[in-house]
Amino acid sequence: MSVEIVSVYCEEFGGEPASVSFTDVGDAFEGTFQSDEEFAQEFAKGYGLCDIANASWPTNCIDWKRAARELMEKYTEVDGYYFNLN
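Structure (tokenized):
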């Protein structure tokens, strides 16, 4: 876990880096992505919800902007870092 990830976590969720649990940060951190749409695609792929590598119907028809908008109700993004809000 990098110092930068912990710092971003503290900025978003409050607390001081010295007092934050690395377990909490690790549980919340989802990775770095270029956009919410990329995050949604990787999330779907990671959970086996669709096979993006072999993008064919219906995967290539998914409205990733809409999927990302709904997914982001449970996540937050700061400078490309994605965290679970749970």
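The chain is about 45% helix and 15% strand. The beta strands are 29-32, 75-78, 81-84.
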